[in-house]
Amino acid sequence: MIREILSGLLWQGRMALRSGDVRVFAAHGYVDEGYRPSRVPFLSVVGPLGLFPEPERENGRTGVATVRVPGHLVGRPRAASDSVPPGGALKLRLDGRATVTLTGLPGGSFASAATGPALTAALNAKLAEALAGGLFQEPTGAPLTDPLLLEALAAVTARWDVEGGRLALSSDPGIASMAFRSSVEVLPVTGSIAGALGLEPPERAQEGRAFLSKLRAPKAMAIDVQVDLWAGSQVDLASIMDTVALSIPTRGQMVLRPSLLAEDVPDGATTLRLLPRGEPTTLMSLAHLEASDLGLERARGGRVDLTPGASFLPASEGLRLSGTGTASVLVYPLPAVPDPFHDDNPAPDGLALSLGLRVAPGAVAAQTLPVAVLLSQAQPVLRLVVRYEQVGTRLMGEVVATATLSQGSGTQVAETRWRLPVERLEAGVALHARLEAGEGVVWLSADGAPQPLQDPEATPAPPVAAPGVTVAASDMVLTLGAQTGTPLDFTVDHLHLVAEPVGPLDPALRRSVTAAPRLKVGDVVVLGESEDGYRVGKRRFQALVLGLDGDAVTLSKPVEGVWARGRTLVFEEECFFFQTQLRRRDDLLNHLYRCCVDYRVSALMDEPNPRTSARLVEKPQVDLVARGAARGASGHPGTSVTEVETARRGTI
Fold first, then answer.
1. Which run of H or E residues covers position 383?
2. d(Cα 290, Cα 356) in Å, to the nearest integer?
3. What is d(CA 6, CA 79) in angstroms, rounded to the nearest whole number?
4. Contacts of 85 (CB under 8 A, 6+ apart)
């Protein structure tokens, strides 16, 4: 829990401390007074500095959920002298009802370590073929047509125990609302290899069972931590402290193990998908796309329009654009009904665009790659292109960012150029363009590092400034790619357009979200509404993790309500914290300004693993006795039954 608290503070700092041209890095710090960060502005979390029990506080409630263990057969261990004849058969009865005969199974000697896994793979393939081909039968021999049972049979699997040298067959977990049970049985058949596989008789045979999983009551503790803020000037430190007062105030709540939804969650859903990496959607987000957003963007749930040549890649690898393919998103649409809070210009002071770009190899000099353009009434508010040129013996990709700003009755264009090695573009780079309208400059960053303006090879010419006001307006269109075509395919794995000139996020933020593989069965999962991406509103939903499959998480109960991917924060626990001390420790000699803030975090420290506390009855049997009829001796001595009317008359 203490590790999660420190990580939660770091995550909140990386997310929230991002104001103007001040970009804050974050990491774990040191108590050593001589420690100096390698770069500023910088935030570090030090702790734990103290650990205190809270006996006056009520411990949290325990969490419970049912866990279903499928019926299974575990074969006897196979020795090196054992073997299986080729072309054998195996007949199974699953859930006491579905029968199937698997034929043409391979053989081999168990003296080879590859025989067991090969047999297991063959069994799984045969089971899948039988299910797809409708070969499962009822006990009467008729084809099995029950849709629920057929769906459940997809979970039947064979596994090879490498350490024990034995085969295990597992059925589906069973369906509580159905009459059939979860079980695996081996039936006799001509040419059966059940004995050779160690399944006749097996080492262990057991029907499916439901268990009650219970988390122990957590312990109430308080942890002292310290947040250190470093800046290179008083102005930078003041800007950071403004944000700290809002995001990490003297009193507040923070979430632990934050996660982000990969898709919207409908009412009644029992599974949800989590992003492997990503960043939250903020109040100022105009458009936000992550690799998993198939056809919808996150900021307002708008539609992503694709033309032939543009497609979302499987396994959440991003949005691929080739040829004349484009992907377009409507940005800041004009409301159908006049709204006094709808500004004509959503970003007069500037805006920021960040995207993860990976370009296919094969570039040659003089090629131009159109990456993204934000259009407002046919005027390019902000445009990003990559132009390839030969610089000496190296092929470089020059990132060109242009922006249109209005001044008086006319417009002018700001332009910034940055040469990046082709290898870096092909490997993938996170580009960030910050348009500062007052300065009239587009500032570029790559993977969190600012453009080296003093490097003549990377920056052959200084940025062209054009102070003014952005030409942003309602009904803008953000387009990836171009209708005229692109000479090279490229992939965008995330895109975020913000209506203020903020610097890039700390690159560690996208990697610090809790992906689904980091969860385990029995963990608490809470869904909460969030407008700014790091603070949680009042509407919550809590469940336990019952299963994991890639980025999908199976919950212990159906979800209540609808949860939008861009306005929901998924987390495990929420802690209350309050400030205990604030002090300055400036180093004026080295122009290093430091502010130390101490917090006490109140948390419930949970047991790391759930425990199985009880086995539940799979099939309850209820015997009804007519009222007034004689009752036999029950299994509970010392009890008697009295009719309600008799009790009301005062006879007992």
1. strand 379-391
2. 10
3. 51
4. 107, 193, 196
The pLDDT of 319-348, averaged and rounded, is 92
Q: What backbone torsions phi and psi does residue 513 show, to the nearest 5 degrees? A: -70, 155
In the chain, what are the helix, strand and coil shares in percent, each to the nearest 5?
15, 45, 45
The H-or-E segment that residue 593 falls in is: strand 593-605
Identify the pLDDT of residue 328: 96
Residue 58 gets which letter from DSSP?
P
Query: If DSSP codes are grouped into helix, strand and coil, which group holds residue 581?
Result: strand
Beta strands per DSSP E along 135-233: 157-161, 166-170, 184-187, 204-206, 209-214, 219-231
Q: What is the pTM of this model?
A: 0.70
Residue 543: which pLDDT band, with cuts at 50, 70 and 90?
very high
Q: What is the pLDDT of residue 641?
A: 44
Place of tokens 């409630």: 61
**pLDDT tens digits, residue range 119-137?**
999 999 999 999 999 999 9
Is residue 247 within 8 Å of 229, Cβ to Cβ?
Answer: no
How many other CB atoms are there within 10 angstroms of residue 99's CB atom? 20
Q: Higher pLDDT residue, 589 or 306?
A: 306
575 to each of 225, 261, 435, 629, how far by Cα in Å?
A: 13, 21, 37, 58
Both tokens of residue 325? Answer: 């393919």
User: Alpha-carbon distance 488 to 235, whole Å?
Assistant: 44
- What confidence score (pLDDT) does residue 297 get? 93
For residue 298, give both structure tokens: 């996150």
**pLDDT range class, residue 628, cuts 50, 70, 90:** low
Q: What percentage of the chain reaches a pLDDT higher than 90? A: 51
Question: Dmax of the chain from CA atoms?
Answer: 108
Using only C-alpha atoms, what is the Rg of the chain? 32
Residue 374 has pLDDT above 90, yes or no: yes
Omega of the bond leading into 558 within 30 degrees of 0 (cis): no
Residues near 632 by beta carbon (within 8 Å), at least 6 away in sequence: none
Strand order from edge to edge, sheet including 611-616: 64-69, 209-214, 611-616
Structure tokens at 442: 């587009």
Contact indicator for 480, 486 with CB cutoff of 8 Å = no
SS3 assignment, position 566: helix
Q: Which helix (H) or strand (E) holds 12?
A: helix 2-16
81: Cβ contacts below 8 Å, ≥ 6 apart: 110, 111
pLDDT at position 213 over 90: no
Structure tokens at 13: 């700092």
- Work out the end-to-end distance of the chain between its first and last CA atoms, rounded to an integer number of angstroms: 55
Calpha distance 618→199 (Å, rounded)? 25
Say which DSSP state 162 is in.
Answer: T
- What length is written for the chain? 652
For residue range 185-209, what is the model confidence (pLDDT) as tens digits? 999 999 999 999 999 888 888 888 7
Residues ≥6 apart with Cβ < 8 Å to 512? 7, 10, 11, 14
Distance CA 17, CA 4 (A): 19
Q: Which percentage of the chain shows pLDDT scores above 70? A: 86
pLDDT at 344 over 70: yes
Q: State how far Cα 509 lies from the chain centre.
A: 13
User: Which phi-psi region, left, alpha or beta, contains residue 113 (left: φ > 0; alpha: ψ -120 to 50)?
Assistant: alpha
Query: Closest by alpha carbon to 224, among 579, 599, 603?
Result: 599
